[in-house]
Design brief:
By secondary structure, the chain is mainly alpha-helical. It is built from 7 helices and 2 strands. Helix content is 76%, strand content 2%. A two-stranded antiparallel ribbon has the order 1-2. The N and C termini lie far apart (42 Å).
Length: 172
């Protein structure tokens, strides 16, 4: 594996891990709004929405921990993240096709109505998950300075992708 592939792979791992961590934190702090979103998106009994919401948060937290663990655990976590983002994307597409005005509480209290921007964000997450697999396990490891740089890049990309709706609004 080339050093460039290693850097890309690790940047993608950190990016996905941070997105999931932000998602967990946001949903946990605005749980009622997320439960309402679950109730609007899925035809499940209202009594089940708290468990479904906590289940989604738990899955996201578990995947973030797998990615944090690195090595083969991270590969397993990235497969799970890819599947999760695929499901989320399908749900968004269905809501958009049905022209349903459902609030996206993906990252907590700053909800917005689901839009094509959410599809762009999810496409970025899916692409980053796939790009992770282009690199292999980190042979010999990267230095702390390398990880610090990659972490900084990941934070910037997380901020852009989680605030895409606001950024587009400002640019208009």
């Amino acid at each position: 594996m080339t050093p460039t592939a290693t850097y890309i792979s690790e940047a993608c791992r950190l990016y996905i891990m941070l997105v999931l961590t932000a998602s967990v934190a946001g949903k946990a702090t605005a749980l009622e709004g997320f439960r309402e979103t679950i109730g609007e998106l899925f035809p499940i009994p209202r009594a089940w929405t708290p468990a479904a919401a906590l289940g989604v948060i738990g899955v996201e937290a578990l995947i973030a921990l797998l990615l944090l663990a690195g090595s083969e655990w991270a590969r397993l976590g990235m497969v799970a993240a890819l599947a999760l983002f695929g499901v989320f994307t399908a749900v968004i597409i269905v809501a958009l096709v049905q022209r349903r005005a459902v609030n996206c509480n993906c990252f907590g209290g700053r909800s917005h109505v689901i839009s094509a921007h959410d599809l762009v964000r999810n496409a970025t997450l899916i692409a980053a998950s796939g790009a992770y697999f282009l690199g292999g396990p980190v042979a010999g490891g990267l230095g702390w300075a390398d990880y610090l740089l990659l972490f900084g890049v990941a934070v910037i990309v997380v901020l852009i992708s989680t605030n895409l709706d606001d950024i587009v609004l400002l640019l208009r």
